[in-house]
Amino acid sequence: MIDTHSIITPAIMYWGTPVTMITTENEEGTANIGPISSAWWLGHRCVLGLASMSQTTINLLRTHQCVINLPSDDMARYINPIAKTTGALDVPPVKQALGYEHCNDKFRLSGLTLRASDLVQPPRIAECPVQMEAELMSSLELMQDLLDRKGVLLAIEVKILRTHVRNDLRLAHHANRIDPDRWRPLIMSFQEFYGLAPAKVTESKLATINEDKYRVLTRSDVIKQGGDMDRVDSGEAACTN
Length: 241
Description:
Blueprint: E1 17-18, E2 20-25, E3 31-36, E4 39-42, E5 45-51, H1 55-63, E6 65-70, H2 76-79, E7 85-86, H3 93-97, E8 101-102, H4 106-110, E9 114-115, E10 124-125, E11 130-141, E12 153-165, E13 187-189, E14 192-194, H5 215-218
Parallel strand pairs: 7-8
Antiparallel strand pairs: 1-13, 2-3, 2-6, 4-5, 5-12, 6-11, 9-10, 11-12, 13-14
């Protein structure tokens, strides 16, 4: 077989991941929105890839709380106005070089609507079909082998405390499942916006597994976790730092 590959050194490795809009609380109590595309999930934990100088990072490490809002593929118009803005009063030199400017009210600039959360202080974004209230668990400095770059980027683990989903995304006859044929996340691939294909490319053998069977990996036998129960406890206490 003829080798059809070439060796390249890409500056970024954005192969295609869902866009997330992270809401956090600024020190003065206002809300910040940080659109990112470096996020992935295992069980009820999410790992966020963030720059250490980002206002989202600073807020999250200080308050230990955030909301992970997932936009649908028709919501890019809300993200572009705030894509090159930062909540930091003093814009870091790196971001200045990329054309970023300070914005003290990203909800106003984006046209998005603030909605109060149940368990954390940062608000949810009303327009986003999926909103996950979350609590900081741990953070890891990346590039530890490079003395002059160690800690510039962080991998931050958060625990999902409560998940809000738009009703039309729920799978019929199931209390806690999403209908993948209805969920259309906004995808970022090498800084460009995309959506999913309108239908499955083929049937998935993995999809024959009942999703509830995965809870054996995440549900603690010792500690009750509200985000991983069969039903939401309406009397559940608010999360504190």
